[in-house]
């Protein structure tokens, strides 16, 4: 296999005599700046913002930058293997597209555009419960490419059961259950902008096409959208859940169950005790608890608590190849990428998402090689030193 890093790098430098003046950016911060120019305040800050003072968002970046790589030399890195095995399935790269709701506010191609970009790369796409088109449409657009479904656990358990059954029927191969968002956080920028996409009917497609949801309405959403949205606000989250409720999921799906939003090692132990298949160490990109631990800082203790009893994934703050290397060295099998791909979507739809994905993977490949590493499955914590 050709190494993706050298390929992409070569493709870029090959245009040296005649560079395209409209070419895409390479630098993460430039994608974000372009997205800022394209989007109104409301949508842009909905994506870019976090909870409260955004301390957690900064903690994510700080946790990553505190870890330093100590490269190894003379280890034959001609062939780099970036592939991973997750839940019995082999994937070419150690990244997944994080579940992101309301993508219609970002670009007209929305979820279908970003899903197809994932499909082109062989990167699993995690469709959000709050997608802008029904999950069946996303699965159809993905064809045979890998897709997982992210569940927001509704207060109405009939909707939960219905979502699980729809996901299974339409070909999703795993269920990601997000635990850190039983309600929307205190998000200062959204409150300042008075911007909440759902109230404008964005991100509710799965609900408005769900038989269990529709039976609770007096009139169909097309006839009385306002009433449907009000009902949605009542059933969306579930602050009453406890660990015992995990059994309900197991009874309603045969797919692997992955809990998203674990930070405390005691919760990781409870997850293992409940027999879940995987966990995602995540603080939701700093969008839920202000002043929470950086996700990478939470990873080593969670990994120690889980051992080999469940698959560990991680997200929150991944921007570049070296970030992925660090997360995997500290115990994750693979990482989810969120906002960088959404800035790609904002700027150029499907093509933008694919471009950002390719660049992050090229950077990872080259960083691996230069650090003396030829396989992501062999990355170890001894490759890192944590700054005081
Ligand atoms: C605009 C936006 C919408 C999101 N929607 C969801 C969602 O519907 N479900 C979910 O589990 N996580 C959601 N997340 C969180 C991401 O899945 C992921 O945890 C986070 O973006 C990772 O951090 P990063 O953006 O720093 O990569 C959302 C994040 C953003 C930025
Ligand atoms: O905005 C988010 O972070 C998020 O997780 C979400 C929650 C509900 C619907 C859409 C997105």
From TrEMBL:
CDD domains: LMO_FMN. Its cofactor is FMN. The keyword ATP-binding does not apply. It catalyses: (S)-lactate + O2 = pyruvate + H2O2. The keyword Oxidoreductase applies. Residues 20-388 form the FMN hydroxy acid dehydrogenase domain. It holds the Pfam family FMN_dh. Keywords: Oxidoreductase. Belongs to the FMN-dependent alpha-hydroxy acid dehydrogenase family. This is L-lactate oxidase. It comes from Oceanobacillus jeddahense.
